[in-house]
């Protein structure tokens, strides 16, 4: 871990860059009180302190201790010092972020982090006098425009559909809380410039330079090239993601309508009456929304093909889909996980 103090800015372009953060926070209008996921890095430091400056007394911090590297204890100490210095209530949550077989380390850490944030927000915070504070209504995460581009490029590399290409949403609801990513249109460098303008420090996670992670290779090798060839790539990519998000929403609405028509569990005869594209769309929606599983492209294509040729009473359908199996059961389709 390295703490990075910054002197005041001397460059007018850096000052203009820092103003992007102020504009983003000025446009941010969450229900208060607000909790910020605070790692101690530059991104979450800028978000936390900018929100604290705008809504003093209404902002809390949640630090998740992953326990995956030796520097984690140092991250926690830094966060405690920052919050004590600024009078920001802090909760520290320790999680076991080790991944299971077949699960990526990044996904394990992400899922554990979300659960810890929800639990911390629901448990509540104590004030300086030890008394309970008003319950948190919103949670803010510090992902920025570069993170959004990386997410989109990763989705493209995996052949994702419109839902994947929609990348990260700016606002959603979960566990009775309003969730926000208010910095998705702000470049990562602007957050460092904002901290530097105020002489504030942060910690640098040593894994951020580990080229073993695909995200880090994108950040180090691909984004600089995009900056040279397409200087406005952050805003244009964001626009494409927004179009994909809108398309994904329409597909979900169509799937919901079709699912009501074919029944739940879906009837084979009614599924066969749908055009192929709508058939695939409603099957994907049914599996995801009802059974919490997502078929691969090959699995979905196989299922669509089997439904199309299922014209006799004895035709058997039994296909591996996601973490379970889709099977024919008389006149309907069923999914099970044994």
Automatic annotation (TrEMBL):
Q: What is its main location?
A: cytoplasm
- Domain tRNA(Ile)-lysidine synthase substrate-binding: start-end pairs: 268-320
Reaction(s) this enzyme catalyzes, per UniProt: cytidine(34) in tRNA(Ile2) + L-lysine + ATP = lysidine(34) in tRNA(Ile2) + AMP + diphosphate + H(+)
Q: Show where the tRNA(Ile)-lysidine/2-thiocytidine synthase N-terminal domain sits.
A: 35-220
Alphabetized, the UniProt keywords read: ATP-binding, Cytoplasm, Ligase, Nucleotide-binding, tRNA processing
Q: What is its EC number?
A: 6.3.4.19
- How does the record comment on the protein's domains? The N-terminal region contains the highly conserved SGGXDS motif, predicted to be a P-loop motif involved in ATP binding.
Q: What does this protein do?
A: Ligates lysine onto the cytidine present at position 34 of the AUA codon-specific tRNA(Ile) that contains the anticodon CAU, in an ATP-dependent manner. Cytidine is converted to lysidine, thus changing the amino acid specificity of the tRNA from methionine to isoleucine.
Q: Which family does it belong to?
A: Belongs to the tRNA(Ile)-lysidine synthase family.
This one is known as tRNA(Ile)-lysidine synthase
Organism field = Comamonas guangdongensis
